[in-house]
Amino acid sequence: MLIDSIIFNNLQQIDFIGINYLIKWIIISFIIIMLTTPFIYVLMFYLCSLILHFYRLILNPYYYHCFMDNGENQSVFNNDDEHYQQWMRPALLIAKIFNIVGRIWHGYEIIGYERIPKNGSAILVFYHSTLPNDIYYIIAKIFSIQKRKFYTIIDRIVTMVPGWSLFLNVLCITPGTIDDCVDIINRGNMLLLAPGGLREAMFSDENYQLIWNNRYGFARIARRTNVPIIPVFTKNSRESFRCLPILPRWLCRQIYDRYKIPIFWPFGGLPVKLTTIIGEPIHFPPEMTVAEIAELTAKKMEELIERHQTRPGSMWKALQQRFS
Predict the structure, then answer these.
(1) How many domains, in total, are found in the chain?
(2) What CATH number is attached to the domain comprising 263?
């Protein structure tokens, strides 16, 4: 009996150690996945760049730059331009890759797509999430359906990533001045931008507050071109990736304000439900000032967020929505 009791106690101890080890292994694996998932998107961008370089090397099509490295407008082509048409096939392939990833991983869908004009120009104003994967999904969706150029304005620091220049240029993702953007719109192209930029990506949170800091560039563009502004918001975009502070938040903000160096580590990448909502186009009378246009756009964006997003956001609820 004594031997049986010793064996039984040892087995219990082994079971306890095994369960303990399993729980620790699951937790550690989950943390590693959450911290490294952003690199999967980076690798996907490099894969897309590799496809484009392969296309350029084998078929030797014309290659063009939307903007020079110094940000000045070098050449903006119309939708029927020969150089642009040469890159249509690989660009559609890239768009298909993003469509597949968005549909499988996030159940991605768009509500109000009919509000995006099929012809002519408009300015789509986005809320900037931690990692704007939703922006790439909507670019891919619009490009796949309309097969027209769709310019996206980004922070210049993104263009400094080695190996991305061809990918960014072919998909018309570029930095640009107000004059560049006016030229793009006057040529009949669509324009997408996020007034909050990297500041909103780093310092907004699960409450989805807008951090535009009087950045009225988009309003000046709209004032000069007289095209409608369309507010766009993606539900659960902040639940897809969160911002892990490397340094105290106030210090990160001071460094960014002074040196424009982003210091943050995105984590997450969970298969949460992502739904992009296209708001009603905002048409404004000629007498509206730039500040009034910006304030009206911010108000409409806040209304979109309030109507469609539970605040504060929840990763768990976003996961439930994905699989419900």
Answers:
(1) 1
(2) 3.40.1130
